[in-house]
Design goal:
Structural class: alpha/beta
Order of helices and strands: EEEEEHEHEHHEEEEEHHEH
Largest sheet: 8 strands, mixed
CATH topology: Metallo-beta-lactamase, Chain A
CATH superfamily: Ribonuclease Z/Hydroxyacylglutathione hydrolase-like
Distance between the termini: 10 Å
Number of helices: 7
Oligomer: single chain
CATH class: Alpha Beta
Helix content: 10-25%
Number of strands: 13
Strand order of the largest sheet: 4-5-1-2-3-6-7-8
């Protein structure tokens, strides 16, 4: 089994969006991963989607930047993977910077926690953009921990707080377990300091999730922070991770 990382756009927001009380702004990546498993190809999140695409040769503007050739389908093709061959898309949650590229995977089933899909469909939160993920693809709704292939190599587990049904994935690699944390832990500082963002769906759940990740990290599991630009500089792109 192989794990690949991709940058699928960038965003610029107040740093307090990740660390409550901090001043200034932060420019950070939208991240996605390919899990190449003998039983099928899987994506964990799909980054930003076409509505943010910047035409070639035009300058970046605004808080969201996705340039030509940076969408998830383009990344896949560059490493010889046909987007039509993706069997599963694991959505950590359904916010636009994590599910925006779902439509590029026409034959995929979307794996999501049932609580997340219910909340996303409710229309209660503007961070969800239904035309990006409610597009006719089948959903596989899971309830709690889910061993995707039944062999322990890709295990989804609930990490709520950022959203009601946020989930992360524990992926077994040759170098040990990696947790793809997504937005339950945006920055390494979030985990090092057990710091909450200035907003979250449920603060008590969020801090509980961070404590669980801290315990996992203490046992040797590597945590991949979803939006940490400094951490992401050290993550090789589009090559197998070890």
């Amino acid at each position: 089994m192989r794990l690949f990382a991709f940058t699928v756009g960038h965003m610029t927001l107040p740093l307090a969006f990740f660390l409550d009380g901090e001043e200034g702004k932060i420019t950070f990546p939208a991240t996605a991963y390919l899990i190449d498993h003998p039983q099928g190809s899987v994506l964990f999140d799909t980054g930003l989607g076409a509505r943010f695409l910047r035409p070639a040769g035009t300058p970046a503007s605004g808080a969201v930047d996705l340039h030509d050739g940076e969408t998830i389908d383009a990344h896949l093709r560059r490493i010889g993977v046909d987007p039509a061959d993706i069997r599963w898309v694991i959505c950590s949650h359904l916010h636009t910077d994590h599910a925006g590229g779902n439509r590029y995977l026409p034959n995929a089933t979307i794996i999501v926690q049932a609580a997340e899909l219910e909340y996303a469909m409710s229309g209660a939160d503007r961070a969800y953009h239904l035309p990006e993920f409610d597009i006719g693809q089948p959903f596989k709704q899971v309830h709690g921990e889910h061993d995707l292939f039944g062999d322990g190599t890709v295990v989804l587990f609930p990490t709520p707080g950022h959203t009601p049904g946020h989930q992360s994935a524990r992926v077994r690699t040759a170098g040990g377990d990696i947790v793809l944390a997504a937005d339950c832990c945006n920055l390494q500082r979030s985990l090092d300091q057990l710091r909450l963002p200035d907003h979250c769906h449920d603060a008590e759940q969020y801090i509980g999730t961070l404590r669980r990740l801290a315990e996992m990290r203490g046992r040797g599991t590597r945590i991949f922070y979803s939006h940490d630009p400094e951490f992401w500089k050290g993550v090789p792109q589009a090559v197998p991770l070890t």
